[in-house]
Amino acid sequence: MNSETLAALGEPNRLRIVELLRAGPRPVNDIRGRLGLRQSQVSQHLKVLKDVGLVEMEPRAQQRFYRLRAQPLKQLHKWLDRYRHIWEERFEQLDEIIEELKRKEKSDAAGKDR
Predict the structure, then answer these.
(1) Could you report the per-residue pLDDT of 45-78, keeping only the tens digit for each?
(2) DSSP 8-state class, residue 67
(3) CB 64 within 8 A of CB 29
(4) Helices 28-35 and 12-21: angle between axes, nearest 10 degrees
(5) Of 7, 28, 30, 31, which has the fewest CB atoms closer than 10 Å, so is most exposed?
(6) Any idea what the CATH number is for the domain that residue 37 is in?
(7) Is 72 exposed, middle or buried (0-12, 13-18, 19+ CB in 10 A)?
(8) How many domains does the chain have?
(9) How far apart are the first and last CA of the chain?
(10) Which structural domain, as residue segments, surrounds residue 43?
(11) Contact at 8 Å (CB) between 29 and 15?
């Protein structure tokens, strides 16, 4: 996993293209139509995704079909997994703080009712 992959996915239209390609290979015109972008914009985004290795192109007759490449996405998943346990631990700590605040709020409200 490299920073170029993250930078490529950081652009919203490129991320939308990756999301579209999750369902399978698509021709450029289909991607263009679904995103409402000009052909040149889609081509630029696909070039960036191809340059970082996230997609590959397969010519079929007069069309160019793009599909996701599994390896870079597996590497991204593996990289993110290293941080997942940190996030889960922090969320658990946050849950504990929220519960403590709720208990304090209830205790304070009960004290005022007396």
Answers:
(1) 999 999 999 999 999 889 999 999 988 888 888 8
(2) E
(3) no
(4) 120
(5) 7
(6) 1.10.10.10
(7) buried
(8) 1
(9) 60
(10) 3-111
(11) no
